[in-house]
Protein: BrxA/BrxB family bacilliredoxin
Amino acid sequence: MSMSFERYMLDTVQPMRDDLTRLGIQELRTPEEVEAALPTAKGTALVVINSVCGCAAGQCRPGVGKALEHDVTPDHLFTVFAGQDKEATAKAREYFAPYPPSSPSIALMKDGELVYFIERHQIENRSAEAIAADLAGAFDRFCR
Structure:
């Protein structure tokens, strides 16, 4: 019985993708999809850099889910998957300067410009509730 590494990884990470897509967050899997979505998104756009790490599972994805229960939310919801959709992630990160690559991480953009960013070090030792509260505050500030 043999399974390709690629198939194994796709099957393994699918539940991690589903954590966000079931919230209505659109996956951007290619650089072309990123280029079509991010710079042209009118209003506000949340971009989650997803990851297989424990802080993505325990804090980032649950924190995003809780934040999206807030009264005010972004107009557009996107995600790229670091380490899986590498080219799409690299293209998305071009919009997050001056921040270095970080996964997981969360960006909030307004009319194609970065206005708020949560880096990995701001995720890994905090609760999902604290991350959700930070995001809700950013939503109140930039998404009204």
